[in-house]
Amino acid sequence: MHHVNDQGELELWWKDSNIAATNTTSYPTGIWNKGVASGNGIRSNTTMCADGNAFYQDPNDHIIGFPWTGTANTQRWGDSFDISNGTVLAGTSIGCYIFYPPSDNSYYVYYQTNGSDIMQAVRTWKDEANLVLGFWSTDSVPVG
After folding, report:
1. How many CB atoms lie within 10 A of CB 80?
2. Dihedrals φ, ψ of 142, to 5°?
3. Model pTM?
4. Is the dihedral of CA 17, 21, 23, 24 positive or negative?
5. Is 123 exposed, middle or buried (0-12, 13-18, 19+ CB in 10 A)?
6. CB atoms within 10 A of CB 66
7. DSSP 27
8. Cα 95 to Cα 47, 65, 126, distances in angstroms
9. Strand partners, 2
């Protein structure tokens, strides 16, 4: 579970409820465990989405994404990147989806820049190793 802490950082909290898993001090099972915080400035009332990367709104009203690696108990945050083309609506809802083959190998993030639009940022990649790096295109979604 990801949430924003009082310092404006994204934290991962995890719980392994697998009764067959071995409970150790480095991998406690059956209880909630705090993971590593992101260290990034996050808008206090942001919505977030995570699917391969985490996306949130920063205090300057940009949509920021960043990858993570590892499992729940070994998670590490990567370098953040701005996918918005300018500022967005304060407190906008954010949605994200990855489409894998045989679809179109694309990552989509949706948000609003004003109260009457929906924007999408799209990044297409060649393979799983190239999921994060690359150019994001931004376009409006026809609504209404």
Report:
1. 18
2. -65, 125
3. 0.78
4. negative
5. buried
6. 19
7. S
8. 9, 12, 22
9. 12
Helix (H, G, I), strand (E, B) or coil at 74: helix
**In whole angstroms, what separates CA 46 from the centre of its chain?**
12
End-to-end CA distance of the chain: 34
pLDDT above 90 covers what percent of the chain?
A: 18
The tokens describing 144, both together, are 């209404």
Integer Cα distance of 11 and 3 in angstroms: 5
Model pLDDT for residues 57-97, shown as the tens digit of each residue: 998 999 998 887 777 777 788 888 898 878 899 999 999 88
Of the candidates 50, 71, 61, the one whose C-alpha atom is nearest the C-alpha of residue 3 is 50
Strand partners, 95: 110
- Distance from the Cα of residue 10 to its chain's centroid: 10
Distance CA 123, CA 128 (A): 13
* pLDDT tops 60 at residue 130: no
Residue type, 138: T
Torsion of CA 19, 35, 45, 55, to 10 degrees: -100
